[in-house]
Amino acid sequence: MRTHDSKLQGIGERLLVITFIIFCFLIISRDISAQSVGEIAGRVYDAETNDYLPGANIMLEGTYLGAASDRDGLFRITNVPAGTYLLKTSYMGYEDFSAEVTVAEDGKRVIQDIPLTSSYLKGDEVVVVGERQGQAKALSVQKSASNIMNVVAQEQMQRFPDLNTAEVAQRVPAVSVERDQGEGRYVLIRGTEPRLNTTTINGEKVASPEDEDRFVGLDVISSNQLASIEVVKALTPDMDGDAIGGAVNLVTKSAFDYDKQVLNFTVGGGYGDLRGRPSYQLDLTYANRFGANKNIGFTISGSYHGFNRGSDNNEMEWGDAEDPDGNEIPFTLQNMDLRDYWTVNRDRFGFSSALEYRMNSENQFFVNGIYNFRRDSEWRNVLSIIPEDGEYMSATEITGGAIERSLRDRTEDQMIYSVTGGGQHLLNKLGIDYKFTYTYGSERKPGQLTHDYELNEAADMTLDLSDTDLPKYTITNFESGYVNDPINYILDGIELSDEKSTDKNIIASLNLQYPFRLGKNPGNLKLGGKMLMKDKKDENETWDYSWEGESDLPMTRFPADEYNEDFMDGNYDIGFLPDGDKLRDFFNDNRDREGQLEGEYNNEDADPANYKAKEDVYAYYLMANLNVGKATFLAGLRHEFTKLDYTGNEVIFNEDGDYETTKELKGDDSYSHILPSVHVRYSITPQANLRASFTRSLSRPNYYNLVPYEIILREDEEIARGNPTLKATTASNFDLMAEYYMQGIGILSGGAFYKALNDIIYITQLEEKSGPYEGYEVEQPVNGGKATLLGFEVNWQQQFTFLPGFLGGFGIYANYTYTDSKTKAKRLETKDSPDSTEFTLPGQAGDVANFALTYEKYGFQARLGFAYFGEYIFEVGEFKNEDVYYDKNLRIDFSASQRITSYLQAYLQFVNLSNTPLRYYIGDTDKPIQREFYSWWMQLGLKFNL
Description:
Blueprint: E1 2-3, H1 6-28, H2 30-34, E2 37-46, E3 57-60, E4 66-68, E5 74-81, E6 83-90, E7 97-103, E8 110-111, E9 114-116, H3 129-144, E10 149-153, H4 154-157, H5 165-169, E11 175-180, E12 183-189, E13 197-201, E14 204-205, E15 226-232, E16 246-252, E17 262-272, E18 277-290, E19 296-308, E20 311-322, E21 328-360, E22 363-386, E23 391-392, E24 397-427, E25 430-455, E26 459-464, E27 472-475, E28 489-518, E29 521-547, E30 563-564, H6 567-570, E31 575-576, H7 580-590, E32 597-601, H8 603-606, E33 611-628, E34 631-653, E35 659-685, E36 688-699, H9 703-706, E37 710-713, E38 718-721, E39 729-742, E40 746-758, E41 761-767, E42 777-783, E43 786-799, E44 810-826, E45 836-839, E46 847-857, E47 860-869, E48 872-875, E49 884-886, E50 889-899, E51 904-911, E52 918-922, E53 928-933, E54 937-945
Parallel strand pairs: 1-35, 2-8, 2-9, 13-16, 34-37, 38-42
Antiparallel strand pairs: 2-5, 3-4, 3-6, 6-7, 10-15, 11-12, 13-14, 15-16, 17-18, 17-54, 18-19, 19-21, 20-21, 20-53, 21-22, 22-24, 23-24, 24-25, 24-26, 25-28, 26-27, 28-29, 29-32, 29-33, 30-31, 33-34, 34-35, 35-36, 36-39, 37-38, 39-40, 40-43, 41-42, 43-44, 44-45, 44-46, 46-47, 47-50, 48-49, 49-52, ...
């Protein structure tokens, strides 16, 4: 067993025991104070719409006693001495409220509901009330939180043309996204790679459908299913501790968010410019409360989004070569793939539901679930130009090169669902809540086919490398049109693969809360525990088929009507595209027939990828918060235990490169971490906060990095190996933040953060030091020592309602984050390279920014948005000049809507107006290895709110 931070752990465990004793003492002694104190409770709501208002600040004037309203608008001020008080309430965008309340000597609860009147409705002006109210709710929750977080309400999500959850999150300060086929997918927070962040639904972890990675692609989840998104940047002890960068918490909808029946649906469609194909959108939400006391809530949401966009992609490999005289050619093109994603169909289905029963103000029960499914179907046509298969006369003159074509026909299904049941109870002053969750994620790629064709003759070629983003080639030994004629391409082979990855999580948690007073200062003590049992599995099968017919099989057997002479904006003519349906029919009709398509199982690709994993995480925590005047303190400790059992395969290839044997390997480990945290919030004024925090957090290795697999290539004297003894990356995090909340619904904030990381993880190349494979080059994930990350962020959101007339509709949405990181890690150990070198952390972009000019007035709203992030290391290479970078990206979007009636709204959205490509480069920006273009797409439709 590996126990990290042993001294800290010993201290932490003693503090936990002491705090537990104090907690028990407070519960036992509750009757001592029951005769002299009481409580004030009630609900905060909008006086006009009756919508509940979370995050309201309620105080008893002249005391330190107060509370913040929860998601249902409920508040409870405990340990209030008998007497008469002036209860004062403030809420962003609303008029202040005051009421006199009296707590009797008998300590009975006093009920005082708080209706608030909005201050952002002026005269006869027509504004988009729902959107403004949503922003007020989000900022109020953010303002009253004990820790540093950003909140995006469902109404705000609709302002930008963001249909999936990752796209919404990218608008938050210090958040950027990695994209796939133009859509945001993986979230990066404060300059940390996706592995260092976590995703939860209603506070519980989401199972990952990814085959190798621990993180979750948020393009699976539609934003229509959510009430809000919380991006937590400083963890509290009652949260899962594995989020160094931050945690994205997806909050699903509840009927108790409203005081009335809600029926919303959206019908829309769109168009993608690159392929000229339509898209479809349908969203529906119904919520209502039933029963004599309206204490039974039912919510259901569903969505369907269908897209067919496609992309133009070129991928290059660069390297050294030699001319016939043995002279080194230091940098030239080795091969280039022109990848035409002619068909990219993405269908996303989402469904969520919640059933809630509020027996009374002290007891409530709930069960909710969310289901998301994404099907990604692609036909990817590739024309490969391969100079390295020939002989380099110079960097640009090649004889005997190769040209190949291929078509990949694959469907990828990703599914995530989560079901949670639980309850909350108040027993006198003791609060109890518990949850049981089952969450499942899967990724399936059934029957994936890749057809490979070779040009029937070697090709002499001349390269033009003046623009490395668009290398040009000229074939000099063939007539014009020869390379694009399908009759000249012969079937080389067909690969069939089936891939399936599953992740099952069972989660149970219990929390206890008890209010106390330290002198005149009210506080709350909380303890709890959680159990997470994970079962992860990856199953792969791969077969290689070859054509054994009497004559060669040319590509003309599978003609298509498509001919692409305008690839990459007219820079390449890639010729005819084969018909994927005809290729699949041919394969199904002839597979495993003697003298036709004969197959052989491919152990090299399949066996190393197969693994099983079991992970159990047990955690308990103790924390307390205390209000002292204008300051709120929160401190506590979390203790997490992790137990791992992994199974992988050793796959050996002999000296001739042929498959030899597969043997199962097992690995296990266990460790624990103590994670303390301290948060301070000081209210300089009712509208201004100053925050500071210290937290410890961790991020566990990706699943496949822990698998005890080995691929031993005796012919090449190389080994690829997993590492079941990898340590989790840990970090000490320091944060400072200042916030000013504007009564006209806005915020101006700025802050700095610093992270000191230990045991960072990356892939490196080392030399085997002993054993039968001594001297082999080993590629393996390793822990790489320490790293530091620092940065600052600023945020400004404001509607300029103070301006006269038409100008009062303008507003601004802007944030900027700067980060910098340093680390030292061992790279390939050779006589010609140092043992370590300094580089930035993967995922750390120096600059991340959002800017939008907004307009909201007369029922009309519009946003012109700019989202930018700088380049960052995507993958650490053997040497510095082999580091792979994800290039900088600027995307421009536009959205507008017009309220036609109080129930009907029309909308129009344009995405990626800048036609910004996805771009990777290796070492230097003038050495691109991938560029992918999507052009723009648009959506329009109607939204009904009944």
